[in-house]
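dumping this here before i forget
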Amino acid sequence: MKTFLFQGDSITDADRSRNNDDMLGCGYATIAAGMLMSKYPGEIRCINRGISGDRSINLLARIKVDFINLKPDYISILIGVNDAWHDTNIENPNGVCVENYEEYLDMLISKLKKALPDTKIFILEPFLLKGSATTEKWNYFNNEVLLRAKVAKAIAEKYGLPFVPLQEMLDKACEKAPAEWWLLDGVHPSVAGHTLIAKELVKVVEVNL
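structure:
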């Protein structure tokens, strides 16, 4: 049986269980897992190791225990918004600058390719919309997350990995309903937002299964 690993921050975490791998949380990982596991019964299992608050450097630090040791056949990675967001804490900024984000993501992929040469890796585009968490510092958020999205795409291209674009999809979705319908605070998806992300991910995954 093949193993699909979801990795990222709170968007991926989505209150997943730390004790039961069958409980993948209430986000896109569960929706995507349901789509894949129902279409390919008995052929694929899904694991979620997203951790709320994580930045690119945290994924790199967890590469052994939460990536390599699991020996996944497929990995999806969504990381970047916290690298920017955590620098908005004026008293104790703890973000990851764009240059370091690129370095850490590149290092993560490079090491994964060496340790798991047969594993297919999918990189998801970091995204955001205007909302309660982003509007006050919108120019900063918009610029910084966009820069990281460009880096994520460039890293995917560098290693020949499938890239899952999400920002344009969410922007277009806002033509049908307000931003908060899709991202509750401009960062964290609603059920509708998680569903859009899951559909986009599965669409790319199925081309590469």
